[in-house]
Amino acid sequence: MAAFAPPVAHNGPAPSEGAAQRMATAFARLLRGLGLSVPIGCVLTFTEALGALGINERDSVYWAGRATLVRRPEDLALFDRAFAVFWEARDGASTEEAESEPQHISIEMDDDDPPDDDDQATAADANDDPTIHLRFSAIEVLRRKDFGAYSNDELQMAQQLMSRLRFVGPPRQSLRLSASKRQRHRPDLRRTVRASLRSGGEPVRRYYREPGERMRRLVLLLDVSGSMEPYARALLRFVQAAVAGRQRVEAFALGTRLTRVTKELSSRDPDKALMLASNRVTDWSGGTRLGECLRLFNDEWGVRGMARGAIVVVLSDGWDRGEPQLLAEQMQRLQRITHSLVWVNPLKVTPGYAPLARGMAAALPYVDHFVEGHSLAAMEELARVISGSTERANHA
């Protein structure tokens, strides 16, 4: 298998080590610019393949791209020419099509500034020499980018990345008993008697049982009011990924009313799930009555059992049109029965932020963890907070 050098920018620096993710993104955008259908999922698979194979072996890169990015047989010829232009830095056009195909490529690797929303592979005509200019951001930049500045394509990619997060909190004790090797637990009389039959009725070996463990329920309460609109569309995708990827997850929308959307978001198809949830929530981008919504949640679901011993996450900026005393009262009720109460605020990252909103100020004394919620990196931190939550002494 012959080795080849990664493509060198025609008017820029050579890609550094670890640039596989950025190169994969740029190549996918080039294919899209040439008319190929390349979904986000295929790009992520190609990125993972390059991460495992590297970008120094020509055949490895070629077959990884062909297996993941080409969906129709009729696209093979165009893929081969694009591969030659991008990865081998040579003219990939046939003799008959040389005049219509690009001949050089310029790669702009920008790790500091986020790309524009309309940033894509484009053809530029400079000195009668067609050149493809690529500008793109690495996945690391996407992780740090504010949700409010996401484009539609970036939201779809974020959906894929969110689906990989694991929200598993500390297990809780189950009422079911399981086998135990420790003698300090209760005897398992049935297994002991059954085993004694093999030794003439003598209980030579004794068996014991102990309480088992079960996964804690995760309850997500998403504020969909007007003040949260820049972040709600991304956070709803996060909630959908959590509901679809984990058992014992409940999801609610908070606005002028409380809406349970667990069933709608449970579909494995993100687009279908988001459409169903949007149709279900009738007060999207409306007002906010956090205190009243939490009172309804506590009365109908939370105190009755859904929130008992659960990890409850409120995703809201804390702006509330209702009475702050009511919100404080309901937060106190909720904290008493939960294992951990987490508040995710997208505005917390703002320099000099202080919880000046009446709702946020009223709720904060009853919050166990107050975290950011403006980016993918913040969602990863939320996953760590949920996994590392410590149980309070007064909880069952």
Describe the secondary structure blueprint for this structure.
Elements lengths: L19 H14 L6 H14 L4 H12 L6 H12 L16 E6 L12 E5 L2 E8 L2 H6 L7 H11 L9 E9 L5 E2 L1 H8 L11 E7 L3 E6 L5 H17 L3 E6 L3 E3 L1 H4 L4 H11 L9 H17 L4 E5 L8 H14 L2 E6 L12 H6 L5 E4 L3 H12 L9
Parallel strand pairs: 1-3, 7-8, 7-10, 10-11, 11-12
Antiparallel strand pairs: 2-3, 4-6, 5-6, 8-9
Helix pairs in contact: 1-2, 2-3, 6-8, 11-12
Describe the structure.
This protein has 396 residues and is an alpha/beta fold. It has three domains: 20-144, no CATH class; 172-214, no CATH class; 218-387, von Willebrand factor, type A domain (Rossmann fold, 3-Layer(aba) Sandwich). The chain has helices at residues 20-33, 40-53, 58-69, 76-87, 139-144, 152-162, 189-196, 229-245, 262-265, 270-280, 290-306, 324-337, 358-363, 376-387, and strands at 104-109, 122-126, 129-136, 172-180, 186-187, 208-214, 218-223, 249-254, 258-260, 311-315, 340-345, 369-372. The strands form three sheets. It has a six-stranded mixed sheet with strand order 9-8-7-10-11-12, sandwiched between helices. A three-stranded mixed sheet has the order 1-3-2, covered by helices on one side. Strands 4-6-5 form a three-stranded antiparallel sheet. A hairpin with a 2-residue loop joins β2 (122-126) and β3. α1 packs antiparallel against α2 (40-53). The relative contact order is 0.09.
